From TrEMBL:
Keywords: ATP-binding, Ligase, Nucleotide-binding
All copies of domain Acetyl-coenzyme A synthetase N-terminal, residue ranges: 38-94
NCBIfam families: Ac_CoA_lig_AcsA, PRK00174.1
Protein name (record): Acetyl-coenzyme A synthetase
SUPFAM superfamilies reported in the protein's UniProt record: Acetyl-CoA synthetase-like (SSF56801)
Organism: Entomortierella parvispora
Catalytic activity reported: acetate + ATP + CoA = acetyl-CoA + AMP + diphosphate
This protein's record includes keyword Cell cycle: no
Length: 666
């Protein structure tokens, strides 16, 4: 076991690369196995990106037409392009080439909600299923460039669906199946999708989710949708609309077991994924084919140190970018066996993760800090008695990991595993700041160092000047583009430029604050915009506010993120009711209204966006020019009312005292 420096401040704790990983008799040699090698490769990737990425793209991907130019354009004008002239197909890269060399290798281990219902899918089988669904989509009129909405539980058909779309050059637009009907409708409409892929029901933690019914609700106002293909997860009776709804299996069975992949140009759009920003309107982040796929493949190789024979397990949902890149495209592009986990960490017991690791001999395990914190709370007993000796790498993603959770997770690895805290975003496509397991000593809570091709800077938020050297805090930006960065927002390139490239001209703006410590390590400090991170899910305050304001009793609202021990942040909503509606704290009518408002958010966005607290108030703190002071609300909720700063600029400073009382009583 290694030395425990958990008594030191996190910044001072340095955990070296575990000796186990560098022991050739125990583990395959890491692709990057020393700090010097990382530094040298990073230097090359920045000084000579054409040569560096040209080589990686040739080695890791299969092309039908080779590219003739590695890079063009950049952040200055938002005209990013990589691997020009090249042609390839993502589904070919993720399926065919492995099905040809190794048809019986397991591509997907489907770990179903009930542990005993698991199922393995080989590459050969995956190829047949992908081709048949691709054929079924074509038969429904879907062609290259069309968008297909996917609203599915975590079943093998979801993986097949993504790959079937990319096989024919259709853009998939996966909507996380925790979103409500209204949120689904907005995304189907925005992307002009004509086909929706879904399932009869979902299963999660022993509960049944009425997936198809939610789709039916959403489609009441989606006139463009012509076809719904329904996978059978439970076999339940669900309403099927004549002429529109078909069983996915029936449609697939009519199709041949092989169709040719559509040749795609490197910069042809590959998929859309909606994400929340600082406005209420979700953005359809668009990725293109070659750059995205290369980022996915490279990070599974280098960050997860993937070697043939590894069993790769990412616990995210395919509805988020983490599922896209680290369940589907990254591992499958390398021909790995990837675990698809349908359940939750506590079902049937809080030992589920550890039982699963032992059962499948998982080598890389990737989850979110919120899951780690939740399991840590339930006690160490659940972690005991499982053979976790197959593990080499433990990854986290989605939000900053607090040192206590990091140590607990690190202990799961018993000193033999590297913990990789991977920082990235829907827009970055793949990891951009992360340790490499064989090369970078870690510090609990720090995402450590930039990945290849990532040229970071920390800027003064006000002047926009680069803060040079160490021991600096500011906004995190990237100085040049890299292959897997998003290219645009669907249908709104202007918004892409304004959100990411214009706030600090010439830089990619992440929206996060960060510190570079005395050793040059990066610590992500969280969002600097109005985005709240609940259990690793991105939500915009504006989106929640516009959901609340639709309620007839609401005049105005202010939503803020508050700290939460398990979910990282949680949502607190200050709701100013319309005149004439009386609020009596603790009174039944007031409690009912609070409940209605929570339901309202669940209905408009989804259950995961439900406010944890609602404060019904008569007034909100505003400046004389009418600007809402969320900063003051955040301080009140955090119990820092004694350091509110100057409130004399408020139109009515007496509002503050009333709010302090209201929050204290709740
Ligand atoms: C992959 C993903 C992106 C936002 C990002 C940041 C937060 C993600 C993190 C992290 C600290 C990490 N975030 N990973 N913060 N450390 N390792 O989560 O994408 O859903 O787009 O969220 O998540 O705030 O800006 P996405």
């Amino acid at each position: 076991m290694m030395a425990d420096h958990s008594e030191l401040p996190a910044e001072e704790q340095l955990y070296p690369v575990p000796a186990h990983l560098l022991d050739a008799s125990q583990c395959p040699k890491p692709w990057v196995s020393s700090l010097e090698q990382y530094k040298e490769m990073h230097r090359q990737s920045i000084e000579n990106p054409d040569e560096f990425f040209g080589k990686e793209a040739t080695e890791l991907l299969s092309w039908t037409t080779p590219f003739h130019k590695v890079h063009h354009g950049g952040l200055q004008h938002g005209d990013i392009a990589w691997f020009l002239g090249g042609q390839l197909n993502a589904s070919y890269n993720c399926v065919d080439r492995h099905a040809m060399s190794n048809p019986d290798k397991i591509a997907i281990i489907y770990e179903a909600d009930e542990p005993n219902q698991s199922e393995n899918i080989t590459y050969g089988e995956l190829l047949r299923r992908v081709c048949q669904l691709a054929g079924a989509l074509r038969a429904r009129g879907i062609r290259k460039g069309d968008t297909v909405a996917i609203y599915m539980p975590m079943i093998p058909e979801a993986v097949v669906a993504l790959l079937a779309c990319t096989r024919i050059g259709a853009l998939h637009s996966v909507v996380f199946a925790g979103f409500s009907a209204e949120a689904l409708r907005d995304r189907v409409q925005d992307a002009s999708s004509r086909v929706v892929l879904t399932a009869d029901q979902g299963k999660r933690g022993g509960k049944t989710i009425e997936t198809k019914r939610i789709v039916d609700d959403a489609l009441k106002s989606c006139p463009l949708v012509e076809t719904v293909l329904v996978a059978q997860r439970t076999g339940a009776q669900v309403p099927m609309k004549e002429g529109r709804d078909f069983w996915l299996a029936d449609e697939c069975s009519k199709q041949p077991g092989y169709i040719d992949p559509e040749p795609m140009h490197s910069e042809d759009p590959m998929f859309l994924l909606y994400t929340s920003g600082s406005t209420g309107q979700p953005k359809g982040v668009m990725h293109t084919t070659a750059g995205y796929l290369l980022g996915a493949a490279m990070t599974v190789k280098y960050v997860f140190d993937y070697h043939p024979g590894d069993i790769f397990a990412c616990m995210a949902d395919v509805g988020w970018i983490t599922g896209h890149t680290y369940i589907v495209y990254g591992p499958l592009s390398l021909g790995a066996t990837s675990v698809l986990f349908e359940s939750i960490p506590t079902y049937p017991t809080p030992a589920r993760y550890w039982e699963m690791i032992a059962k499948h001999k998982i080598t890389q395990f990737y989850t979110a800090p919120t899951a780690i914190r939740a399991l840590r709370r339930l006690g160490d007993d659940w972690t005991k008695g499982h053979d976790l000796s197959s593990l080499r790498i433990l990854g986290t993603v989605g939000e900053p990991i607090n040192p206590e959770a990091w140590h607990w997770y690190n202990d799961i690895g018993q000193g033999k595993c590297a913990v990789v805290d991977t920082y990235w975003q829907t827009e970055t496509g793949s990891h951009i700041i992360t340790p490499l397991p064989g090369a970078i000593a870690t510090k609990p809570g720090s995402a450590t160092v930039p990945f290849f091709g990532i040229d970071l800077a920390i800027l003064d938020p006000v002047t926009g000047k680069e803060l040079e050297g160490n021991n600096v805090t500011g906004v995190l930006v990237v100085k040049r583009d890299w292959p897997s960065i998003a290219r645009t927002i669907y249908g709104n390139h202007q918004r892409f430029l304004e959100t990411y490239l214009k706030p600090y001209h010439g830089y990619y703006f992440t929206g996060d604050g960060a510190t570079r410590d005395k050793d040059g390590y990066i610590w992500i400090r969280g969002r600097v915009d109005d985005v709240i991170n609940v259990s690793g899910h991105r939500l915009s305050t504006a989106e929640i506010e516009s959901a609340l304001i639709m309620h007839h009793a609401v005049a105005e609202t202010a939503v803020i993120g508050a700290n939460d021990d398990v979910t990282g942040q949680c949502i607190h909503a200050f709701v100013c009711v319309k005149p004439g509606i009386s609020i009596i704290p603790g009174h039944a009518s007031t409690l009912d209204l609070s409940k209605e408002l929570v339901l309202q958010v669940r209905k408009v966005i989804g259950p995961f966006a439900a406010p944890k607290k609602i404060y019904l108030v008569e007034d909100l703190p505003k400046t004389r020019s009418g600007k809402l002071m969320r900063r003051i609300l955040r301080k009140i909720v955090a119990g820092e009312s004694d350091s509110l700063g100057d409130i004399s600029t408020l139109a009515d400073p007496s509002v503050v005292e009333v709010l302090i009382q209201r929050v204290a009583k709740s």
